[in-house]
Amino acid sequence: MLRILVATDCHLGYLEKDEIRRFDSFDTFEEICSLAVINKVDFILLGGNLFHENKPSISTLVKSMEIIRSYCLNDHQVQFQVVSDQAACLQNRFGRVNFEDPNFNIGLPVFTVHGTHDGPAGVDGLSAIDILSACNFVNYFGKVDPGSSDVDQISVCPVFIKKGATSVALYGLGNIRDEKLSRMLQTHYKIQWMKADSEDDWFNLFVFHQKRRKGSSTNGINEQLLPSFLDLVIWGHEHECLIDHQEVSGKDFHIIHPGSSVATSLSNAEAKPKNVVLLEIKGMQYKQTNIPLKSVRPIQYAEVQLKDQLGVELNNEAALYEHLDNIVSNLIDKTAISGSEPKLPLVRVKVDYSGFLTITPQRFGQKYVGKVANPNDIILFSRSAQQNRTREHTGGSEECEPNELDQQSIEELIAESNLILDKNDLDSALHDFVNKDENMAFHSCLDKNIDAAKKKLTFATKDLKAEEDIVLQLDQCMQERMNEDPLLSKGGSEIMPCSQSLPTNALSAFQELKCSSNEEQDTHESDELIEISDKEHSQQASQKRPAPVDGGSQSSRRKTDLSSFYRTAPSKNNDDGGKKGKAPADMEP
């Protein structure tokens, strides 16, 4: 039997600057590792978003590596084998799982894919998980360049694991933009699922990190798009913990939602109890056991509509304050506190204030400092969607809430612009710049497109010899680049408003540059001739003077200066240089 502990969305480093909640993610991750040791699992499987940021702080990296080192590095014998081509499925320079390295004692292996927060970014496409992989702490698989427009196909290579008579094909796919992955799943042969050549029965386990949209293929992944040969799917990114596995109509596989191990938003879905999953696989059968997490900070969530509450008047702020105070106090009293060091609870009350006055949430929360972990955002005021539509139809001029404003996605902003760069690359660069704080994202995008143009030009001009032919080929390459994007062909004049003042094509630009270079060269040579003529004139005048009485030291010094001058004079070719550098006849010794 193969025993696996499954966890997703650990978000290490979340709110690390908060004095109260800074250690929450690390406490829960350490509990997850301790549960793996207690239950004697074969390995830990993480479903993405191990880190909350693509570039975590040094403190976050140190704490994470200390936890992994404490629980995973020991002399315990690993009871399973990896029989697949490890270099094809593991993205590291060593090309093997960490527990097969003779220089390390790995007793509890960790397999992980990247998520939306800790995905690869930058010029080299690296993330914090690559640091752990380079240190031989985790086995990083399922890595795909999420923003590359050159990747037309994806090959998902599984990690083939054997333990006795149990054979598991572990498929992994790191986060890719939902729109791109959805299109690839709907197109045949865009994603190649590598399968085992042997006739053994393999249990196909797939872990990935995407937004889920049931029955829809827009703004998320529809479970109907996944291949039918899978047996079990571990779905990361969704923070809601769904205890029981879910069946998919028309498919033979089940879906497990472990949910996040730490709450990153105060919502009803996050308020549910947090669990990890102990997965036991034997042959083609599996068993799911949910293990509650005890180190998670308790959350109390409630929704209130003021129009349905008794004793709350429209313009009575004191009555509203007292009513909300009673609700929050009851939620705090319901929080079950256990353990020697109890944690302050998180409390969120979502208030629909349609038609009522509001109070300042920060002022309201001052009373609960030391009683809750989030005193500044206990109350969240919102307005019902029906009230919003009424205000819109009646032409109300009341100030809108931030969540009511019309917002455009990054993809929509890029689609409205006329771009010379590849739209997919620029879309990915903008995502990395905004979501992953990657300052070099646009620089990497520009370098990538320049390199692609250079490679295309080099391949097309291998047999060309004349410089004019190369420039013509460059002009043709630029024209093809413009024709590939319909927006560029339609709006080319809008992209380059000053095009009338530029050369008509690359050849004319090259000819102008060549003419200007020749003029500079002629000017430089004429300056050299003028300088030589001036010196010759001065030397001829000096020869007419009487020689000095002391043996002609002035003549010898003048000859040394002339030879030094002619040695340093630049020459364009050997023939002309010899004629220009030759001294006059009456100057030779």
From TrEMBL:
Keyword Signal belongs to the record: no
Subcellular location: Chromosome; Nucleus
GO molecular function, one term: single-stranded DNA endodeoxyribonuclease activity
A Pfam family annotated for this UniProt entry: Metallophos
Region annotation Disordered: where it falls in the sequence: 514-589
Major localisation: nucleus
Keywords: Chromosome, DNA damage, DNA repair, Endonuclease, Exonuclease, Hydrolase, Manganese, Meiosis, Metal-binding, Nuclease, Nucleus
Domain Mre11 DNA-binding: residue ranges: 286-433
Cofactor(s) required, per the database record: Mn(2+)
Lineage: Eukaryota, Viridiplantae, Streptophyta, Embryophyta, Tracheophyta
Biased composition regions of type Basic and acidic residues, renumbered to the chain: 521-538, 573-589
One GO process term, biological-process aspect: mitochondrial double-strand break repair via homologous recombination
Function: Core component of the MRN complex, which plays a central role in double-strand break (DSB) repair, DNA recombination, maintenance of telomere integrity and meiosis. The MRN complex is involved in the repair of DNA double-strand breaks (DSBs) via homologous recombination (HR), an error-free mechanism which primarily occurs during S and G2 phases. The complex (1) mediates the end resection of damaged DNA, which generates proper single-stranded DNA, a key initial steps in HR, and is (2) required for the recruitment of other repair factors and efficient activation of ATM and ATR upon DNA damage.
Protein name, per record: Double-strand break repair protein
Organism field: Oryza nivara (Indian wild rice)
CDD domains assigned to the protein according to its UniProt record, in alphabetical order: MPP_Mre11_N (cd00840)
Cellular-component GO terms for this entry: Mre11 complex; site of double-strand break
Lineage top rank: taxon: Eukaryota
Active site positions: 117 (proton donor)
Signal peptide: none
Family, as annotated: Belongs to the MRE11/RAD32 family.
